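tRNA threonylcarbamoyladenosine biosynthesis protein TsaE
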Amino acid sequence: MREERDVDLSVQDGSCSLEVVSQRASQTQRIGMALGGLLQAGDLILLDGQLGAGKTTFTQGLAKGMHVTDVVNSPTFTLLKEYMGSQSRDQKESAGAPLALYHFDLYRLDDPDEIVDLGFEDYFYGSGVCVVEWAGNADELWPADRLYIRLSTVDETKRRLLFVATGQRYCELLQQLQKNMYAITRS
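Structure:
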């Protein structure tokens, strides 16, 4: 049986937050998958948390939700990996194109300006979805409107995911995710 505190949404002053406790890695992936199915071109998802908190696990689920069929792993040594989603049945019916997933890992980033120097900033305002692990390493570069997710370890298998949305698009996204969460947190 699901605990009432597994999903908790709060809204304040143009931002909203959602706290979720995931019981295991597969559930963390399902939460990511639920979010991935809601994303649109230009969305920016910022992930933070200590090593082993589940950032890549979450991103793997998010990629599945975007219909990415490639194996998704952390781009720690390359800073960026690009994946193309395939068209879902809904996209084919509505003539929507599949989304690209741009997966960044800033763990080894020495200076946030490297992102600008490498031209990565263009991705953040492009036609795909950007997911950035270790986003705290470049805090000053992110736009005000975004979805920030802090993953933390509760115990060996449990993870706490704190979603903080700023801007109307991301608050609406988080509210839609919250509506979908009740089915996910039960399993």
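The domain at 4-186 is CATH 3.40.50.300 (Rossmann fold).
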